[in-house]
Design goal:
The chain is α/β, with parallel strands linked by helices and about 240 residues long. Helix content is about 30%, strand content about 15%.
Length: about 240
Amino acid sequence: QKLQKPMKFNLDVIYHGTDTKNFHPISEQEKMEFKKSFFKKAKVSVENLYIVGVVARNQVRKDLPRVMRIFKEFQKRRPDSLLYIHARENDVGGSLGEYARNFNLELGKDWIFPGNFNENVGYPIDALNRIYNIMDVQLSASTGEGWGLPITESFSTKTLNIAPNITSIPEIFNTIGNDYDNPEDLEKADIRGIPVKSGVGLSEWQTIGPTDYERIRPLTNVEDAVKKMIWVYDNPDKTKPIIE
């Protein structure tokens, strides 16, 4: 805003990367033990539930209410599922509990979040690694990422990611210029994640003003996300090459 004229910068890009010593797969037995321990306050037995997770700050840019809406529509069709949001319940993005009530998601039964969570401290890396491992899929509805560390961190645990095909994500997923409208085409593609349409047509966008530098942010298409999630759920064998 304060520049009197545009300036040209010639900058190198230093990629974040992810340390695979910190983020890596664990055994099925370790996954089950951690799942039962971590979700011990849930109102349902989690052993056989399909865990849809998201690691994200509870802030407007991450659009966690839209994650809830996508999950709700998915859960209507595949009810053996639970949404885990790794974030503080009440943060700059608002109250997750209030958003959940709007979508009739019951805490402990349909969705859950970590207790006494502080985003400035977080969880130990080993615990976060285990959290990624117990997710069947990580779902994002972010309106933009500079990198998106949870994506590549969960990649390293062999957790599949579903995310909007915008900003840095197409480069990471290898989905530049292709939303794969037909989910069946995903099986044949040389990709690393499941892309979702975002900013479709003239209506799917938002801006929150000067606090976000007047950026026009695309919104994740709920219908396409649900369609892709169902394909992932129904075709675990077809998703293995993408995960690898």
